[in-house]
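We emphasize that the prediction below concerns an isolated chain of 262 residues; any contacts that depend on oligomerization or on bound cofactors are therefore not represented. The input was used exactly as deposited, without trimming of termini.
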Amino acid sequence: MKKLGFIGMGNMASAILLGAVKSGFLKGEETIAYDPNDSKLNGLNRECGMAKATSIPDVIDNSEMILLAVKPKNVENILSENRDQLKNRTLLSVAAGWQYNRFRRFLDISTHICAIMPNTPAMVGEGMSIIEATNDLSPKEMVFTRQLFAALGQVEELSSDLMGIGGTLSGCAPAWVFMMIEALADGAVYYGLPRDIAYRLASQTVLGSGKMVRDTGMHPGKLKDDVCSPGGITIRGVKALEEGGLRIAMMNAMDAAYKKPD
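Result of the prediction step, given as a token string:
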């Protein structure tokens, strides 16, 4: 019996598997996975020793815990087709838009369920994963789950009513930050800095700034003030950003993403 089985091995599931193996939390041979893309499974098998399953039932039968990592539109069919096999089993899910109450409509009461929302920076070990507080995990299973996703970055637990807005922030904001990095680099390229260097400077600056906010616990406004000398160049840039509506643009982006109609 494997410690963790994967249903679906796309980019996120691969990041979870490789992150857990590289951190030493799991050994590749302690995992098993199924995906219709056999070449994907072959590659991961060669890279970390993960076992290849022949079907979804094969994963369920041979795993202590199962991680569902398929496209959201495929979840309902998988749950319906494997409802009986999932009885008395533990199912973790990273499928977007699927939370505890929605899963509960399709699965037997004996199935333990927990929804997790990771984001793409998990692929480089700097992810933000949100665990839904409403779940059926035993204390031992919760420890395993938190340690699994801690191998990919930071972990936060949120109540069900906050999963949507929390997932919007951590899940969508990487795209907006990438746009910021691109724009910062463009501004430097305009004045002659080579683009590859501009991207390195901008990305490391964003990474370091985020780490300062997280690790110091200081208010981001205070950290901003510390960089702004009176009459200096940074405060001039702050003024330009305020005139350009940076804050309201970010808030509007959150609003637009969170309120997207189903």
